[in-house]
Structures are given as structure tokens and as C-alpha cells.
Amino acid sequence: MAGESADVPPVPPQDAPAERLMEVFDLVGPLYRRVHRKVEQTAPIEGLSVGVRAVLDLLRAHGPMTVPQMGRAQALSRQFVQRMVNDAARHGLVESVANPAHRRSLLIRLTAEGRAAISAVRARELALLRRVDGDLTTTDIDACLRVLGAMHALFGDVDVDVAVDVDADADAEVDVD
Q1: DSSP collapsed to 3 states, 29-60
Q2: Which residue in 44, 52, 125, 177 is a FRET match for 164, CA 20 to 30 A apart?
Q3: Model pTM?
Q4: Distance between CA atoms of 165 and 79, rounded to whole angstroms?
Q5: Phi, psi (rounded to 5 degrees) for 130
Q6: What CA–CA distance (Å, rounded) separates 177 from 58?
Q7: 3-state class of 103 per DSSP?
Q8: pLDDT tens column, 42-87
Q9: CA distance 29 to 32
């Protein structure tokens, strides 16, 4: 057939879905990086970094949370989330409040300024996303979310606070930060 290489063996039928999922990974990485850059380019409007934007949006969606809860929800290290929370607090976008469930782990919540900032960012992002081409239906989007959710669940046990040292044994792990 045209376009097929004689050097590449055909994909066994049981691997066809996995091969298609690799195409998803091939799109998600560059898409994430482009969205990241777009947020950075427009961040000066509200003065938000990508990390602070993520914290504010998480608090908008879920209400007050601890730093460890936010880290788990975003698959980010607690240290990184803490730096983003500190940055947001310096700008008056979040505040710490007592946590009735845990004496030492404070809850972080949005301030009125933080709620206004994330609302403005989301309004601008929604306006941009309304321009997506492709005659996408809610069924298409639901299918995409189902596929990405299944892929996310597959890697749900990955500890984001531990990194593998690629120069050492494959099984050796080192703490980050």
C-alpha cells in the first residue's frame, strides 16, 4: 500500500488501540506546551503565572484546599504548589485559614481579588476556545474526556513528589527539592 514502509512490521491487532493512544500522547504534549505559552503571553493582563493560574482555578472549582491536596489534584510536587500559593498570597489572590480537619495543614482559599482574577482569565480562555474549528459536538468532547480520563487513571499511581534518577539504577529514586 502507498505510504507504508516495507521495513516497519504491521501492527498486531491487539496493539492497534495502544498505537492510537500513542497518537494521543503525541498531540497532548505539544498542545500542553502551546497552551502554557499562550497563558504566559496573556498572563500580564492579570499578572498570573501559569502555576498561579492553575492554583486559582483549582480553588475556584473545588473550594478551599490544603497544599498537599492541590499537589495531588494537579499531579505536581507539594513544593511547587507551595511556591505558587506563596506567589498568589503575595499578590493578595489567596489566603490561609484554619483547617478544622488538621491543625498543621492550613486551608488555602481564594480572596475576592483572586476570584476576580481567575474569572477574568477564564472568560478570556472561554472566548478563545469558542473559536476551535472542526464542528466538534458534545459527544466528541465527551469521548475525548473519556479517553483522556482512562489514560490519566492508568498513571494515577505515579508519585509526583519522587523522581527517578536516570543515571543510577532504574529502581533508585531520589526526592525532588
Answers
A1: HHHHHHHHHHHHHHHHHCCCCHHHHHHHHHHH
A2: 52
A3: 0.74
A4: 19
A5: -65, -15
A6: 23
A7: coil
A8: 766 667 888 899 999 999 999 999 999 999 898 888 999 999 999 9
A9: 5
